[in-house]
Amino acid sequence: MKLAVLTSGGDSAGMNAVVRAVVKAGIIRGCETWVVREGYEGLVRGNGDDHKAEKPAIATHKEVHLKDESFVQNLRFGDGELLRDGTSDYTSGRSLKGRYIVRVGWDDVRGWFGVGGTLCGTARSAAFRTPEGRLAAAYNLIKEGIDALVVCGGDGSLTGADVFRAEWPSLVSQLRESGKISEDLANTYGHLKIVGLVGSIDNDMSMTDMTIGAPTALHRICESIDNIESTAFSHSRAFVVEVMGRHCGWLALLAGVSAGADFIFIPERPPEEDSWEDAMCKMIQRHRELGKRTTIVIVAEGAHDKNLQPIRADAIKDVLSDRLGLDTRVTCLGHTQRGGRPCAYDRILPTLQGVEAVEALLEATPETPSYMIGVQESKITRVPLMEAVAMTHSVSKAIGEKDFDKAMSLRDPEFHESLEGFYATSQVHPEPRLPHSQRMRVGIMHVGAPAGGMNAATRAVVRYCIAQGHRPFAVHNGFVGLLDDSVHQLSWLGVDNWMTRGGSELGTNRKLPDIDLGLVAAKFQQYNFHALIMIGGFEAFSSLDILEQGRKHYPAFNIPIVHLPATISNNVPMTEFSLGSDTSLNALVDACDAIKQSASASRNRVFVVETQGGKCGYLATMGALATGACIVYTPERGMNLNMLRDDVKYLKKRYGLDVKGKSEGRIVMRSEESSSVYTTKMITDMFKEEGGKLFDSRSASLGHTLQGGIPSPLDRARAVRLALKCVAFIEREHVALLRQSDGPRVAPPESAAVITIQGSSVKWVPVQEMKEHADMVNRRGKSEPWANVRSLIEALVARPQILGER
Ligand code: ATP
């Protein structure tokens, strides 16, 4: 198969990672790989009739012989650098001028991972919308012998892809009839395979949870709002922040949740009141009465009232100034939202989706529909492209018809939950929602090491509890603090700016309740807790187990107790994500980008990067995928001499294949407890010694920096969603306990549970069931949901080809 990849429509972070993954996966699967510059416009323009793809002669460090000779053929064509630099190579006279469909090899997409936007260029092509333009595009593809196309863009680009594929047979007939192509070519290229990937910062595509670039745009927005927040606080000002999203409020909504905004305007759910001005002022007035110094209102560019009258940032500013007398400023974030380095998610998702796109193309037949590659929670999916596009359009249609319930119903469950989360954490209710009899005293505790999102989760629990009529109590410094009576009630305003705070505002401790279980029970009784929410890692899970088992002896533990996993190690069994894991992956990516730059500057350096993670290799493995590391060591797999011998062999061959003077820095990721013998220092020294003149080696131990500073927006948003589910759970279990007939109440085992994310659903797992899946000695799950990622990491650095395993 000869396959080409193009990026189209508005650019988004992660598009380069798509191209990198498609090119690499294509070469691994034996395809010839091409990129099309400037989106569909490049297809229409093609290469001109007299162009011949020539392969420049390139001198490598060493003559390296691989079993897989075709891999060497596909290693480089030299145009990647020209694309990357956006210039011509004046020394060799190579230029991309007049060439829009460019052959690329493995090393041509080197280093594309961390670059924002799209290096292939993108355009909105009027020509491709016309039948003549598409005829020219078909001709240009056939001329280069390309029979498969990956398109990364928004709904417009994917519609274009489907139109192109549907028309393809007639385009081929026209080219045959006009004599532009031969009968043979017409027969050979009778069918075009197309797959779509959604690159869009708006996250506006239906049938997928996330579009490529949306998480990075959310990062940019939250960074800006976090900065605005401090100046707003200084002057006690109000800020109206306009974000992108013509038909989709995802960015505004998630930014509202993650930044802890006061009010948001999104197209799918305009304020229900007749006057949006009244609705907003009422809410903000209440916040100010409670003592808030800052006001943040986020408005999507496509926001409107329930009669579809646009709501503009300036109008909001006027209302806040005139009616509430607030010193108000407007900030329109504009194109800053599109820019910058991709976040970890926007490196991992496009990589997984790019690989899947190649598989989908290889399996495509004239009978199969064109697929769009999506994602549902953590699973990569294939959905019929046109169905997804049609469903996406039906959201705009429903909004246009003022059917906002329908528009909401067409958004995914996470959208709904985030909106509920926003209301629950921003609204102040004059009266609690629950009757007195159901109100609880809820203890909240952080257990174990700090992780990003712990404070955001606590804030959400506190605000939701207050809205319901419960009294939330902070237990500071874990179980030790409980025994020391470090307990105090939390208020709505007291947690106001906790969304953006890293670490643990409550203070956290690794001690388990068995330091003195009897006294812990006495304290539960003293504070009359009706429920306990523990936020933390493996220690929180172990504590839950101890408390549940302690119920036999201590009636005070017969209350609902939940554990919300929060740990950068992500080592809590049965859940694919813990709060904090996204923050630390981003911290890892940031550090590795800097390290790689230094490693590449000295041309030939291997950096051994040591990560935290205890006996769990999640962070190292996903970090390796997100940074393009070439080797990963984890505690689960361990380390041995044979492995190290192969690793040295791989590095020598790989550096040998590099162009002289253009070797790059490479990263080896090592989880801290991978081996007590083959330490980070030992392998760094070994690589240095073995590398000789080919490569040098250094190490960097990232340690506690991986706990991250400000939690990532995804961790904050996830914290809010899960925290609300925790409160709903303890409420249900509390009511069930109240219904028990007279006599001492006995909490059922299921009322001590862990909230987990499994595939596409959030599931409660009773602690005793979870224990069966836990490796209590190594403090991790018995199975690793990310186990197959290592083979992908190795595939993406061509380890099998270079070591001659294929
Ligand atoms: P964004 O989400 O950033 O707007 P998009 O992919 O939706 O991205 P569009 O401008 O709508 O951006 O589409 C990009 C390109 O796709 C268009 O310039 C055009 O070349 C092509 N295209 C869109 N719709 C069609 C169509 N119906 N037929 C043919 N080509 C189309």
UniProtKB/TrEMBL annotation:
Binding-site positions, beta-D-fructose 2,6-bisphosphate: 510, 567-571, 605, 612-614, 672, 698, 779
- Every copy of the Phosphofructokinase domain together lies at 2-361, 441-730
What is the regulatory mechanism acting on its activity?
Allosterically activated by ADP, AMP, or fructose 2,6-bisphosphate, and allosterically inhibited by ATP or citrate.
Q: Which residues form a coiled coil?
A: none
Q: Provide the binding site for ATP.
A: 10, 124-125, 154-157
- Its recorded name reads ATP-dependent 6-phosphofructokinase
Q: Region C-terminal regulatory PFK domain 2: which residues?
A: 441-806
According to UniProt, the reaction catalysed is: beta-D-fructose 6-phosphate + ATP = beta-D-fructose 1,6-bisphosphate + ADP + H(+)
Q: Which HAMAP family does the entry link to?
A: Phosphofructokinase_I_E
Organism lineage string: Eukaryota, Fungi, Dikarya, Basidiomycota, Agaricomycotina
Name the active site residues: 202 (proton acceptor)
List the NCBIfam families: 6PF1K_euk (TIGR02478)
Q: Which domain of life is it from?
A: Eukaryota
Q: Which residues bind Mg(2+)?
A: 155
Compartments annotated for it: namely: Cytoplasm
Q: Which Pfam families match?
A: PFK
The record describes the protein's role as: Catalyzes the phosphorylation of D-fructose 6-phosphate to fructose 1,6-bisphosphate by ATP, the first committing step of glycolysis.
Tell me which positions the record assigns to the signal sequence.
Answer: none
**Which intervals of the chain are annotated as region N-terminal catalytic PFK domain 1?**
1-427
Which E.C. number(s) belong to this protein?
A: 2.7.1.11
**Pathway, per UniProt?**
Carbohydrate degradation; glycolysis; D-glyceraldehyde 3-phosphate and glycerone phosphate from D-glucose: step 3/4
How does this protein assemble? Homotetramer.
User: Listed GO cellular component terms?
Assistant: 6-phosphofructokinase complex; mitochondrion
